[in-house]
From TrEMBL:
Organism whose genome encodes this protein: Plantactinospora siamensis
Occurrences of domain HTH arsR-type (ranges): 1-91
One Pfam family this sequence matches: HTH_20
CDD domains per UniProt: HTH_ARSR
InterPro entries linked to this entry: ArsR-like_HTH (IPR011991), HTH_ArsR_DNA-bd_dom (IPR001845), WH-like_DNA-bd_sf (IPR036388), WH_DNA-bd_sf (IPR036390)
Protein name (Swiss-Prot/TrEMBL): ArsR/SmtB family transcription factor
Length: 108
């Protein structure tokens, strides 16, 4: 659950969500490119990226002096499975049960 908390905390900030959206549109951006995308200082973007990296939502790769940032959607998919999926399952079971009952009524 600690990992979930880090992901929720990272997603709670609109600037971090904009950074993720930017990486979704064009993966492998540098810090300078991300700063230009969100219109924020290097220091602010670096702090946001640190939070995203802690939550494992962003992975960085260094090539020489250049550091590129990549979106890692796996933690979001994990959350969807644990938090959203369990509520959807209940709804799907309810719909299946309703369908079964309606079909039984139509055969009577």
């Amino acid at each position: 659950m600690e990992d979930d908390d880090a992901v929720f905390r990272a997603l709670a900030d609109p600037t971090r969500r904009r950074l993720l959206d930017s990486l979704h549109e064009r993966n492998g951006q540098t810090l300078s490119e991300l700063c230009a995308q969100v219109g924020t200082t290097r220091q602010a973007v670096s702090k946001h990226l640190a939070v995203l990296e802690t939550a494992r939502l962003v992975i960085t790769l260094r090539r020489g002096r250049e550091k590129r940032h990549y979106l890692n959607p796996a933690p979001i998919l994990d959350l969807a499975g644990r938090w959203i999926g369990k509520y959807e399952r209940r709804r799907l079971f309810a719909l299946a049960e309703l369908k079964r009952e309606l079909e039984e009524e139509s055969h009577d």
